[in-house]
């Protein structure tokens, strides 16, 4: 049965029966609702006057007005097309909801929204039909219950934070420090995606097709791809906190590589791979048939990206810069 919210007659019945000291369980039977629904309704809309205590209580009309106001806030992105397009556009650029809401406030937009409103829209029926969840950093199709969300402190411990990363990595002084990410495609591609890696000093890019977003499959595939590179040329990899990277502990014993993690919802902290993804989208748009990409296709795209002169490299290509660094290791 489809979910329906309480209406004004039901709320008035709750008010009358509460005033008559009727137990909540009997109120629930009377209006044909589960008792937990009635408990939540009373708790959410109970009016409390600390000065005039006798005025405190549940009032059906006030509860109805509060519910309508909440619905109006939730539906703001449906009613206002310009606001909705602005939010969706920034979601597609990789902005998390908190950044979008904060930026709208910073820009002084006449109509503002909270990040919770954006999340509510993303996971609403309309947002799910547009597959908006795939643009979130977590890329989770369904939102976990609010009180079931847990910090990922054990998965991504504080000592692996980007703020603990050695300073020489931050300054790009040394060779062999990488950034990693996943490029996600349209829902029709299923779990297939493309993993992207870039060496921070030389901007050398590695792209490979990844057929499964499970963390075990991804890390095994990553180690296979990076195995031919000498250990001194793969000292560390910096990721975001996507759940796909939770098996990062395999990297140290598997290939002697340290793992570092950005702050939550801070993709700019791995700006090199974000830049790579943006440039790679020229050849790998979101409607790409990932299953049709062969190793030869992926190599051709990498060769094109790595063969483009870069101003930050003094107009050398990433391939040239990478080879120079590899020669120094011999």
UniProtKB/TrEMBL annotation:
Metal-binding as UniProt keyword: no
GO cellular component, one term: cytosol
Record key words, sorted: DNA recombination
GO terms of biological process kind: DNA integration; DNA recombination; transposition
A matching Pfam family: HTH_38
Integrase catalytic domain span: 162-326
Record-linked InterPro entries: Integrase_cat-core, IS30-like_HTH, RNaseH-like_sf, RNaseH_sf, Transposase-Integrase, Transposase_IS30-like
GO MF, one example: nucleic acid binding
NCBIfam families for this protein: transpos_IS30
Protein name in the entry: IS30 family transposase
Species: Meridianimarinicoccus roseus
């Amino acid at each position: 049965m489809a979910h329906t919210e309480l209406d004004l007659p039901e709320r008035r019945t709750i008010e009358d029966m509460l005033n008559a000291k009727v137990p909540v369980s009997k109120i629930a039977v009377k209006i044909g609702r589960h008792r937990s629904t009635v408990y939540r309704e009373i708790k959410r809309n109970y009016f409390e006057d600390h000065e005039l205590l006798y005025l405190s209580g549940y009032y059906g009309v006030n509860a109805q007005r509060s519910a309508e106001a909440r619905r109006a806030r939730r539906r703001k992105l449906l009613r206002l097309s310009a606001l909705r397009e602005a939010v969706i556009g920034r979601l597609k650029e990789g902005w998390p909801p908190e950044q979008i809401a904060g930026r709208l406030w910073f820009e002084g937009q006449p109509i503002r929204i909270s990040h919770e409103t954006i999340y509510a829209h993303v996971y609403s029926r309309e947002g799910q039909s547009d597959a908006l969840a795939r643009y979130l950093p977590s890329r989770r199709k369904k939102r976990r219950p609010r009180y079931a969300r847990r910090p990922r402190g054990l998965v991504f411990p504080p000592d692996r934070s980007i703020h603990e990363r050695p300073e020489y990595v931050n300054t790009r002084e040394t060779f062999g420090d990488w950034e990693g990410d996943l490029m996600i495609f349209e829902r029709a591609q299923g779990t297939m995606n493309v993993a992207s890696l870039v060496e921070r000093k030389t901007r050398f890019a590695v792209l490979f097709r990844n057929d499964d977003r499970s963390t075990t499959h991804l890390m095994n595939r990553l180690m296979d791809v990076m195995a031919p590179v000498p250990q001194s040329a793969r000292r560390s990899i910096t990721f975001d906190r996507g759940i796909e990277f939770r098996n990062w502990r395999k990297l140290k014993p598997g290939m002697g590589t340290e793992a570092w993690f950005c702050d939550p919802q801070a993709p700019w902290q791995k700006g090199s791979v974000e830049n790579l993804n943006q440039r790679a989208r020229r050849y790998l748009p979101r409607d790409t048939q990932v299953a049709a990409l062969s190793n030869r296709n992926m190599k051709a795209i990498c060769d094109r990206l790595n063969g483009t002169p870069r101003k930050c490299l003094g107009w050398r290509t990433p391939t040239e810069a990478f080879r120079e660094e590899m020669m120094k290791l011999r």
